[in-house]
Amino acid sequence: MKILNLYCGIGGNRKLWGEGHEITAVEYNEKVANKYKELYPNDNVVIADAHEYLLDHYKEFDFIWSSPPCQSHSTTNYFTQHIRKRPVYPSMKLYEEIIFLDNFYKGKYCVENVKSYYKPLIKPQIIGRHYLWANFNIIKIKQPKDDIGTMIKGHPNRANKKPLEERNAVNSELGLHILYQALGIIKSNSVEQNKLF
């Protein structure tokens, strides 16, 4: 299967996908993209604006995963608005991609983000702290343990001081669960699902 992994970071969502797919990963930050390439040397890594890359290449892929930056949507943003010199608007790129994929893309897709401080403009599926917009049903599971808060510098839940390019934002088991759902592999009573989660 040809997979497009947008805003790939260092590939937390991709870690358990294996080598059986042709994966193109798009990341804007060159340092982060280089770390991804080091971890997944068989993937095609593109240093570019993922939002623009989607428009130019969406027809080339069977499955699209998109994890646009969550900072402007998260509850943390809501609580920290008062300490900024200037507040920020939530980025509408998230909803632009959902609407675009839902109306023009023929393959399977999943757009992932964190729970927002506002009522979502388009109803998502929810697993743990994640909002998931997909054109297929994602069986609800208990959210696999991940490092919530580790993307925030100085956050008390941040267990280590690794740089951004060495931290995952999306749990690998959740990424695998969603890919399996897109492929129709796991059913709700699956023994394999119980082993994984």
Brief synopsis:
The chain has helices at residues 30-39, 50-57, 75-80, 93-104, 172-183, 191-196, and strands at residues 2-6, 22-27, 44-47, 63-66, 108-114, 125-127, 130-134. The protein is an alpha/beta fold and 197 residues long.
Tell me what you see in this structure.
This protein has 197 residues and is an alpha/beta fold. It has six helices and seven strands, in the order E-E-H-E-H-E-H-H-E-E-E-H-H. It has a single domain, classed as Rossmann fold (3-Layer(aba) Sandwich), CATH 3.40.50. The protein is 27% helix and 17% strand. It has a seven-stranded mixed β-sheet with strand order 3-2-1-4-5-7-6, with helices on both faces. Helix 1 links the parallel strand 2 and strand 3.
Q: Biggest sheet, open or closed, and with what strands and sense?
A: 7 strands, mixed
Q: What's the number of helices?
A: 6
Summarize the helix and strand pattern as letters. Answer: EEHEHEHHEEEHH
CATH class: Alpha Beta
Secondary structure elements and their pairing?
Blueprint: E1 2-6, E2 22-27, H1 30-39, E3 44-47, H2 50-57, E4 63-66, H3 75-80, H4 93-104, E5 108-114, E6 125-127, E7 130-134, H5 172-183, H6 191-196
Parallel strand pairs: 1-2, 1-4, 2-3, 4-5
Antiparallel strand pairs: 5-7, 6-7
Output the keywords.
single chain, 197 residues, alpha/beta, Rossmann fold, seven-stranded mixed beta sheet, 6 helices, globular, disordered C terminus
